[in-house]
Every structure is written in structure tokens, then in C-alpha cells.
Amino acid sequence: MLVLLRITIGWHFLYAGLWKLEHPEFSSEGFLSQAKGPLADKFVKLVPDEDGRERLDPARWGQHTERLDRYFEKFKEHYRPSDEQIASATAVLEAHKTQTSSYLDENREEIEEYLYELQRLDRARQAAGKGGEQKVKAEREAGQAGTTAVSPGMPYVQERLWSKKAELKAQARTWLAELDRIYGLFKRDLDALLVGAQRETSPPVEPVRQIEKMDMLVTYSNIAIGACLIAGLFTRLAALGGGLFLLSIVLAQPDWPGLYPPPPPSTGRSLIVTKEFVEMMALFALATTRVGRWGGLDYFIHHLLVRPIFSRKQ
Asked: What does the alpha-carbon distance between residue 301 and residue 279 come to, in Å, rounded to a whole number?
């Protein structure tokens, strides 16, 4: 039964990793940005500029046109376009830089109001975290952050603050998505200028974002853990790694009393002990056994390598 438990959990991890691999749109950004509980800030910081505060800061708007300039230079270096193509590409560059600047200027007032509301929300969250005499102040800050008056009681304040945070992030996503759309159109228009063998060349490689590196780590670690558990290879290490991975999920979304938001009804009812918690404990238990030697490749590693080496030393 322990071998079957090992294979079952391995199947779960392997399929989860393969699904992520087959769906390039997968991103852990949404999960991390929705973290809650005492360690929420630690997990949210893993997502670079998760609320768009830096990308939407008017003092840093130049970074968006600089992004176009950087790709333009890579385009020229990568494809070696003719003088005529460079002239056309330069016109495309200037057109999209103008479009980017115009879009930001058109929304300047709303963006500045958004950044101001973010500052109010930060103050409200800080006040809510101090407790005691700061409770009333937290509720007052919650109201100033764009909500109506709230009744006493921190759970209600948490709900208000969370709702306001979700509202602001949705607003920021609209602007950031449009900026990314303009950038995508810019690359598409440059590609339209390519001719002959240039079209058969793969596009320039862009820097991998930190969140994308994390997604790759999650994907391939899930596949490796699952495959090792199914094959019974390095089982204790795989079980320990899987347990730690699930521990990070449990800590990012703890199901503790008083934490907002509560889990959606579709996940069922639980208190601290969630499905991820149960599977985590099962993996930690497997890590203390020799289950990899029972119907697994660890049997051969132990008897052909480990045992002879330690027998000689004795």
C-alpha cells in the first residue's frame, strides 16, 4: 500500500508538471499575488511589480519606450536588415513610441489617482496590522482607500482592504495589458518587414523574466518529483522535495480562522488541514521509509552501489 501511495502521489505531480509544460500560458503570478496570511508579503514579493506600481509611475514612463528601443536594436543585430528595411523599421519604431506615450498621457490623471489610492491602501494595511488602538484608524484608512464607512471589527476591515486591492489591481491590469499589446503589435509590424531567408530565422531571444524562471522551476520540479516517485528513484529526496513544495502552497494560502478571503466553496470545507496539507504529510511520511526499495529503482541503487561500498569500508 505504501508503494501504491508513492505511485499515486507521483502520478499527481507528474501530470501537474506535464500539464504546465503543455500550456505555455501557465503562470504562478496569479497564485502568488493572491497569497494571504502572515507570509503573504513574502510570497507577493516573488512577483516583480505585481501591482504595476513601478511600470505605471509617471517618473518611469520612459522605460516603455526604452523597451521598444532595445528590441529595435536586437532586431537590427539579429536580422541584418537592408538600409531600406531599417528606414521602414525606424518609422515603425517612432510610430509605436508615439502611440505608447500618447496612451500613457491620455490616462495620466487616472494612473496618478490609482497610485495615490495604492498609497492609501498601504497605510490602511499597516494600520490594520498593528491591532489594538490602531483598529479604528485602520477602518478609517479603509474608508479613505475608496470604500464606504465600515463597522468595527477587523475581519470586516480585512474584507474591505482585500476587495479594494482586487479592484485596484484589475484597474492596473487594463493599462499594463494595453502597453503589452502595443509592444506585441510593434514586434508584429517589424516581422512584416522581413523578406526571404529572414522569415525563416527564429526571432530574437528576449530576457527571461524572474516569474518565468520560477514557472519553469515549478514545472520541471513537478515532473522530476513525479517521475522519481513513480519509478522509485531517489525516493526519499523526491518525497521530501514534494513535501516542501506543498508546504509552500499551504503557507501561501493557509486555511486558518479569521483570514480573508476564505477558500471558495468549490474547494470544500476545511480548517487548517486542506487537501494539500494531507498530501504534504503523506510525502513527509514516505520520506522516512524505504518505500523506494520496494518495487522501485532504489532497490538496485542500494544493493549494487550503496551496500557494497559501505560493506567494504566496514
From this structure: 27
Grid cell 531599417 is found at 86
**Which is it for the CA torsion 104, 109, 114, 120, positive or negative?**
positive
Of 171, 162, 186, residue with least CA distance to 36:
162
DSSP string, 147-187: -----S-HHHHHHHHHHHHHHHHHHHHHHHHHHHHHHHHHH
Instruction: Please tell me whether residue 48 adopts helix, strand or coil conformation.
Output: coil
Q: What is the pTM of this model?
A: 0.77
d(CA 278, CA 91): 59
Nearest to 249 by CA among 19, 34, 25, 49: 34
Backbone φ and ψ of 34, nearest 5°: -100, 15
Fill in the DSSP letter of residue 152: S
Q: Give the C-alpha separation, 116 to 242, whole Å.
A: 42
Q: Minimal CA–CA distance to 35: which of 21, 25, 50, 13?
A: 50
Each residue of 12-70: pLDDT tens digit? 999 999 999 999 888 898 888 888 888 888 888 888 888 899 999 999 999 999 999 99
84 touches 74 (CB < 8 A): no
